[in-house]
Design brief:
121 residues; 5 helices; 2 strands
Length: 121
């Protein structure tokens, strides 16, 4: 006799869907992944997507948050696009996000879609 309730089945479907949505695509870079997640879920004032990317694809990158903070993204994921990286194509913001150019497994560097924002003080 099957004792699985409809609520249990529904909960498993939701968990599987969310898990698939937050999984980085094969070869996807940090910047493309975080932007995709922010566009879907929004910013909560933390580095939750940066940490998730690191944990799932580059667990040895233990100083990722320190590196992001040194580029001006000290508090949250959305600061990556205000202070650390910008689109390599200036008119890109008026169009949908282009597909990620890809990076090697274990990298936390951005792909060719992104350039570092240089700050001069």
């Amino acid at each position: 006799m099957n004792t699985t309730s409809i609520a249990d089945v529904a909960e498993q479907i939701v968990q599987d869907t969310v898990s698939a949505m937050v999984q980085p695509n094969a070869g996807e870079c940090l910047a493309c992944y975080v932007l995709r997640q922010l566009n879907t879920f929004g910013c909560d004032g933390s580095h939750r997507f940066s940490r998730a990317f690191r944990d799932l694809t580059a667990p040895r990158a233990t100083s990722l948050e320190v590196r992001l903070a040194s580029m001006g993204a000290c508090c949250c994921d959305c600061e990556i696009y205000m202070n650390a990286y910008e689109s390599a194509q200036r008119d890109w913001e008026s169009r949908p996000q282009p597909p990620c150019c890809g990076v090697r497994l274990g990298s936390t560097q951005p792909c060719g879609n992104w350039v570092r924002i240089r700050r001069y003080y």
